[in-house]
Design brief:
It is a multi-pass membrane protein. InterPro entries: Protohaem_IX_farnesylTrfase, UbiA_prenyltransferase, UbiA_prenylTrfase_CS, UbiA_sf. The protein is mainly α. It folds into 2 domains: 172 residues, Tetracycline Repressor, domain 2, CATH 1.10.357; 140 residues. Helix content is 76%, strand content 0%. It contains 16 helices and no strands. Helix 10 packs antiparallel against helix 11. The radius of gyration is 20 Å and the shape is flat.
Length: 312
């Protein structure tokens, strides 16, 4: 990490608003964490009291926000070099790096301790490991050193449904492991699609994203291969106790759409205009968000219908 003295000086001149502190927690990433954790908790065979479940989701969200703050603290130097991220609170000088670090560490401690008290200490330990994995393993160790950064580091974003399941059951299972696998194999094509139309950003910041180290063609091949692998795990999840006809129908449609989207990206060439390529890449990126939310929503609907005996 480069010297952040300049960011401290800028922060002293600026004035952070409430929205800056919200942005520091990466609310869009947090929404994914909350939703998938809630899905894992929802479909678990043990039901939590609604108040306990609410508290557990709240503290998981805080843990996700803590990870975001720690990530923004460490990455402020490269964020300042990327058009997509230079407006974030730390590189823009509205929040000092030390303040972001303090908030991230404080929220980490609060979220882990309170989740342990609200749910169980296994889930709390899992949350602590997830924060550590995202902030240290991905942000500090992997992101700047290997093009496999988003592949390995993506595990951090795949843990929330396992944490939600652990809140309810106190352990892990084949169902929670497959939910993890779905997000784990979804993450690379999701972020590589983003990297395809923001390649210059990663190149300028010196981040060894696959698009920078191996080029667009290799990245397109990887995206398509991962859509195929993802479809296998999404289908396998339907064979467990959380699957059923609703989930199967939704998963079949989503898998077909995602594979077709990956195939469209695979067929792109650098001979095409940048506008045409970016249109397909941005469309796939949007589709990837729909895919994940719809798939986990289908799990929740499947479970709810089964719980009320509507599918028995």
């Amino acid at each position: 990490m480069t010297d952040l003295t300049a960011f401290d000086d800028k922060a002293q001149q600026g004035e952070a608003g409430f929205g800056d502190y919200v942005a520091l927690l990466k609310p869009r990433v947090m929404s994914l964490v909350v939703f998938t954790a809630m899905a894992g908790m929802w479909v678990a065979p043990v039901h939590l009291h609604p108040f306990v479940a609410f508290c557990a989701i709240l503290f998981i969200a805080l843990g996700g926000g803590a990870s975001g703050a720690l990530n923004m603290w460490y990455d402020a130097d490269i964020d300042a070099l990327m058009r997509r991220t230079r407006g974030r609170p730390v590189p823009a000088g509205r929040i000092a790096p030390g303040e972001a670090l303090g908030l991230g560490l404080g929220l980490s401690l609060i979220s882990v301790v309170m989740l342990g008290l609200a749910a169980n200490w296994f889930a709390a330990g899992f949350l602590a490991f997830t924060i550590f994995f995202y902030a240290v393993v991905y942000t500090i160790l992997l992101k700047r050193w290997t093009p496999q950064n988003i592949v390995i580091g993506g595990a951090a974003g795949a843990f929330p449904p396992m944490i939600g399941w652990a809140c309810a059951t106190g352990g892990i299972s084949i169902e929670s492991l497959l939910m993890f696998a779905v997000i784990f194999f979804w993450t690379p094509p999701h972020f590589w699609a983003l990297a395809l139309f923001t390649k210059a950003d990663y190149s300028n910041a010196g981040v060894p994203m696959l698009t920078v180290t191996h080029g667009r063609r290799v990245t397109r091949i990887h995206i398509f291969v991962y859509t195929l692998v993802l479809a296998v795990f999404a289908a396998a999840l339907g064979l467990t106790s959380v699957g059923g006809p609703v989930y199967w129908a939704v998963a079949a449609v989503l898998n077909a759409m995602f594979i077709f989207g990956g195939w469209r990206i695979l067929r792109r060439t650098d001979a095409e205009s940048e506008a045409d390529r970016h249109k397909v890449e941005k469309s796939f990126f949007t589709l990837s968000l729909v895919y994940l939310f719809a798939l986990f929503a289908a799990l929740m609907v499947q479970h709810s219908l089964g719980a009320y005996g509507l599918l028995s």
